[in-house]
Amino acid sequence: MSWIDSAIAMLPEHLLLAGIVILIAVEIVAPLRKRGPLLLSLLAVSFAAAAAVWLSANGFAFAAFAGHYSVDPATLLAKAIVLALAVPVLLISRDDVGQGAFPVLLLSSLYGVCLLLSADSFLTLFLGLELMSLPVYALVLLAFRRPQSAEAALKYLVLGGTATATLLMGVSLLYGSSGSLAISTFARALDSPDTMANVAVVLVLVAFFLKAAIVPFHAWAPDAYEVAAIPVTAYMATIIKAGVLLAAVRLFGTTPVTRPMADLLAILPLVSIVWGNLAAMRQQSFRRMIAYSSIAHAGYLFYALLGEGPGRFQAVAFYVLVYGLMNLLAFAALPQNPDDTARDRMDNLKGLFHRDPFAALMIGVAMLSLAGIPPFPGFVAKFLIFKNVIAAGFTLYAVLGLVGSYLGIYFYLRVIQYLFMSAEEPTAVQGSPGRLALGASFICLLGAILLAVFPGWVIDLL
Amino acid sequence: MADTALLNVVLFLPLVAIAAIVALPARQGEPVRRLSLAVMLLQFALTAWLYARFDASAEGLQFETRLPWIAAWGVYYQIGLDGYNLLLVLLTAFLGPLVVAGAFTAIQKDVKLFYAMVFALQFAMLGTFLAQDLFLFYLFWEAMLIPLFLIIGIWGGERRIYATLKFVLYTAFGSILMLAAVIYLVYSLNATTGVTSFAFADLYRSELPLPVQTVLLAAFALSFAIKVPIVPLHTWLPDAHVEAPTAGSVILAGVLLKMGTYGFMKLAFPLFPDATRLLAPVFGTLAVVSIIYGACLALVQTDIKKIIAYSSISHLGYVMLGLISLDLLGIQGAVMQMVSHGLVAGGLFLMVGMVYERCHTRDLAAYGGLAKLLPVYSVFFMVLTLAAIGLPTTSGFTGEFLVLLGAFRAAWPQYVQGAAYPLFVSASAVAGVVLGALYMLWFAQRFLFGPAKAPHLPLVDLNLREKAILASIVVAVFALGLFPDEPMRKTELAARQYQQLVAGVRTGLPVATLRQLPSSPPGSQTRLATPLEKAGTP
């Protein structure tokens, strides 16, 4: 029965939608105690993730709305990764923004990500991208705790709007040159001799660069990351990035990238890697530093598209999983304090090992993993990407990218230095992470250990 | 079978120790110290057992474990002992208890973290030596950075942050280029043979064109040369040594620097033999420059630790010279020199640490006539000084002598036999020996003799713990000096294999043929020990 299959295909989305509806209904009818909405949203996300894993494990594949929406095991796995990453985000949200609109907006955005990852046509892609972004503009403003919040949110909104406009322009040119809205037209346009198609490819690519914060389209990221509440920053840094990149992989399909396009695809990410790593060195705000770090990581992720077709999904999926878990681990272990600005200062981390050894170790593991230093899982993820890039013949770009990643080691080590070697700041905010945040860090840590000890098992799965 | 399991136990014992240390509830250090020492002693005992069981006449890996790890990439968890790593693993396990015991009184801050980091370092170092898969090797190789970064950065001296960042950033730069080379190497092996493998044994079979080999060798060599370190990439070493706590210095000098030379011997040179032969004079020259430059700098230092740090640069120059001489005696000498330097420099750093704990200064000018103030200490110090110079009957002699012998017999393919340049290189190395005697003896003279003075009087001579530490080092130094035959027999086959892999052409057969041949059985050629026995007994 095709409508049953359609319903099953969208099961993760349906579960999210059910969660959203119930949350809103309950909010109107009988506002729950503080923990209620969080629990509901956790349930919805976990069930959605479990449904995605279950469908993927059964090899379910179906085109629900022919030409617009389809799922296959890989797509479902991508959704499962994104949804699983949302669990720690929800867990750390309790102490900051765990009530009111946050769960609803987060679930809506997740719905958008899921839609985005299943898009077969640019219509669905656009719908997913917008549904993913719109709630986040609101989320950035949700914890309106600083005067700069409005400015940052506006910056994000305007640049997000620019991305949308650029995407639509590119899509219309693609439609003009091919007469179709299917996303496969993008892959075909990659090495097409038609100038219009090439311009379209560049425009679509720029839209993705904007969404993923690739230099020089990155200006919104440090501001937005800095002023947003920590769970929102964590959401932007991990899930939004994962969604955009996994969608990019879907867009590129398995078409090999050839020379002129490959240069375009490599140079801006390379600049991102270098600039992100350099700019992160001087940051005094933890979230700004993470923002620049995420700019560099977006660079590595786009590098993965240089690799040969089938390996792209594997590389990107593995990378966003590791990268997401590590970022969330760091955010979950941050000292807890109502004073958001004070809490964000890097100086707070000085001597943390003596105040809270567990938190310091967690942040340390996260930083070393993000730096890509073995034996932490970030290394395997980076290795996978650069292996594919070299195998595809872009050795020079791989070497330059690796040297760029070397530049990043310094600022990650600076965090380690603060945590373990510096004397404690007298003005540092006190306070340990809450119980739910600790739970989140345990989940992330377990994931990290699993990925470090049995990377082969996870890679085979992807 | 049981021994194979034992080797894995040796490797993973440090991780168990870390878990145990974390689980210990005590805030005070005493139980942590005792536990650490016990585990380290156990590890040494197990390693010594494996050393005794090692069969000198067997080809290839012994006690080998090979399990698929990342199957999709052809990465295996493959470890084993062979002649290349046997002595270095033993050295690492031998220094472990000494490092732990040596830090008993020196480390009072964050004791649990300190010993956990020492074990993490031990795990990474053993892993690097034991790994027989390039991916695994790289993983362990890089994993060493973090514990040492913390050891220097938390328990180091005043400029510790600068020193530790310099150390990590230096070494990480080498590694990142090596990573690119590793990937390229594996990818080209896949492209030519269709095999995706990181196993050393498979990679030795890769046949790359000379220009590619040269570039890849440069990338590997940069990484290893920074670690050795070879002049001019050495500037991180004095800083790291001076700022590191004693334990860090001992591990750094005793084991870590050997990672570099081991890397050259096991990977860089045999993987790219054609390029190595082409560049042999360059490496030879750099080795001799290291010998002489390190010695000259050691001569003018006023900081005790810096003298020993620069002497390390000089001594590891001999190792490089022996390896690149491609002469069997030279290679075996290099292996012996690695072990000897680990013992001697490790011992000297421990001794500096002991005097520093008493006087809190490393300024040589503040000391004098310690022979009167600390008689027992001075005896040990003199013995290690003489071993560092390479006096016969000590371990230093075996290594240095064989290296020099090998260097004179080296015939780099670019030069006809007896050409001036290789001769010049070897002769300069001999001049280094003279310089070595000069700086060490002058150091000992100013330190131990002359009018007695010290910043803190009265001084208490060595206690039982310190005597035991130093006595075990001195015993090992003499054992290697008097009976070098036994360890050299166990490493002979590896030295032969290395020589064949790198210098295949010199034996008259093309390299490609040689790589498929098993190396010649021992005994079919001149017994190695003969010239040694002649030379070893004065």
Number of strands of chain B: 2
Mean pLDDT of chain B: 87
Q: Structural class of the secondary elements of chain A? A: mainly alpha
Query: Quick one: which chains have the greatest interface?
Result: A-B, 30 and 36 residues
What percentage of residues of chain B falls in helices of 4 or more residues? over 70%
Indicate the proportion of strand residues of chain B: under 5%
Q: The biggest beta sheet of chain A, please?
A: 2 strands, antiparallel
CA radius of gyration of chain B = 22 Å
Mean pLDDT of chain A: 89
Largest sheet of chain B: 2 strands, antiparallel
Shape of chain A: globular
CA radius of gyration of chain A: 21 Å
Compute the number of structural domains of chain B.
Answer: 1
* Number of β-strand runs of chain A: 2
Q: Helical content of chain A, roughly? A: over 70%
**How do the strands line up in the largest sheet of chain A?**
1-2
Question: Would you give an account of this structure?
Answer:
The complex is a heterodimer of chains A (462) and B (538). Chain A is mostly helical. Chain A has a domain at 256-462. Chain A is built from 21 helices and 2 strands. In chain A, strands 1-2 form a two-stranded antiparallel ribbon. Chain A is globular and about 65 Å long. With 538 residues, chain B is mainly alpha-helical. In chain B, 73% of the residues lie in helices and 3% in strands. Chain B has helices at residues 2-23, 30-53, 86-102, 111-130, 134-143, 145-155, 160-193, 200-203, 210-227, 236-243, 246-271, 273-300, 304-325, 328-359, 370-373, 375-389, 395-409, 420-448, 464-482, 485-503, 511-516, 529-536, and strands spanning 62-70, 75-81. In chain B, β1 (62-70) and β2 form a beta hairpin. Chain A binds chain B through residues 353, 368, 373-375, 379-380, 383, 386-387, 390-391, 395, 398-399, 402-403, 405-406, 409-410, 413, 416-417, 420-421, 455-456, 459-460, and chain B through 68-73, 75, 110, 113, 138-140, 142-143, 145-146, 149-150, 153-154, 160-161, 165, 168-169, 172-173, 176-177, 179-180, 183-184, 186-187, 190.
